Every structure is written in structure tokens, then in C-alpha cells.
Amino acid sequence: MATLDDKLLGEKLHNYCSSSEGEDSDDDERSGDEEGETSYKSTEQANEPPPINNWNGSASNTGPKGVLEDWRRYKQLEAENRKEMEIERIALAKKLTLSAKTDREEQQAKEREEMEDELSELLDEEFLMKYHQQRMQELMSQLQKCPKFGQVKTLANKDEFLNAIDKEDAKVTVIVHIFNRKAKACTTMDGCLNVLAEDYPAIKFCRIEADVAGLSKHFRVDGVPALLVYKGGQIVGNFVQLATELGNDFYATDVQRFLIEYGLLPEN
Known about the structure:
Residues 98-125 form a coiled coil. By secondary structure, the chain is of the alpha/beta class. The chain has 10 helices and 5 strands. The longest helix is centred in the N-terminal third of the chain and has 36 residues, at 64-99. The termini are far apart. Mean pLDDT is 76; it is low at 4-25, 38-46 and 51-59.
């Protein structure tokens, strides 16, 4: 029999669900859905691959990008290694080239070192002073051994002319003036040679008249003044018609410069 509540709310049917019952059902369904989603997300996260980081020298994945990155890094290391090996090879080749010397090269290097040592000694100031003093002593000794003249000697005949040349020391330079008494340039030449004989005492100055020497009339007129220079019995200078070169009026310095230019007088 229906009660008042039943009248107000109506009869409970077989499929009737109260509001409280519905709420409980909704809560159960909602909690079930949430549990399902949580379970799904946990499964999905478990199946996801780990994140890809920048490669630091070891492969962390085998995907296409990872394989390419590994390959690039491998080629880079291979190139760097090849470059280092090439540098080492060149350095080793240079070292072997420098160290591998033949006997001839070693001998040349030894001689070069000896010459450098000798040069360093020459550059030494004390050594140079000693060398200079030694050379001065040698020159002074040679000058003392050489005969001294200091004046012009007149040769009276052909024999004296020959003896003045052939019997003189081979180191002595002999300068012979062939003159003509009537030629003005010959008189000037005699005065110049007197000055030079004093300035060069180691040089033998002589004079001989063209007639005494047996020279031709043409030479006596046009060939004088003439200078013949001998050393070791051999003629080393032959100058005729010097009036054409020097004129009639000239000085000792002109004759000196002329003979120095031909290397027949040393420079004072």
C-alpha cells in the first residue's frame, strides 16, 4: 500500500534511481575515468623515448639524426687525427734530413766551423794588434835588408847600363831616364827624378844619355825624354815621347802620379 511519500514522489519504478543514488553512481564513474586516464598516461609515458640531448662524444640513441651526428663527429675526428699525423710525419722527415749527413757534408761543416773560429780570432782586437805589430816588424826587417839609393845615378856607358839592370837585386825596381842634353823636357825630368829619388830611397833611379846608349838620331830628337822601368832584369815599363804626355813644364808630382797609375811606384 502506497504511503504519503509515495504519493508525493510517485511510485518507485523498477528502473528508478534516487538523486542520492545517481550522485553516488556519478562519483563512481568519475573516479573510474580518472583512474583510467592516470593508468593510460603512465603507460604512455613509459612508452615514450627519452629526450634527445646534444651529443657529447657518445651516442645516446640510434635514430636517423643520431646516426648522422655520430658520422659527422667520426669524420671530424678522423680528419683531425690525419692532420696531426701529417704534421708529425713532416717534423720527423725534417729531423731525419738534418741528422742524416754524408761524410763529405760533415767534413764541409767541420771546415766551415774551423774557418768561423779563425775569423773570430781575426776579429779579436788583441789578436789584430799583435798581427799589426808583427807585420810592421816584418816590413821594417825587409826595408833594412833592401839597398838604399836616395839619388839619381848617371850611367857613363853601355856596360854600366847593363850592370845597373842585370846585377841589381831582383826585388829592386830600376827606373832609367834616357835623355838629350838639348831637350828642355829632359832637363825638367832630371829635376823631377831627383825629388822622387829622395822620396823613394828603395827605388833605383838612373839616367843615361841617348848618344851613349847608342840610340838613333831620330830617337835622340823625338823619343826623349823616355823612361824605361826594369825589375828582376826584365823590362816592365817602356814610355817614350813623354813630352807629348806631360809637356815641357811639369812637376815631380805629375811624374809620380803617372808612374803610380801604371803600378810602377807604390803610393806613399
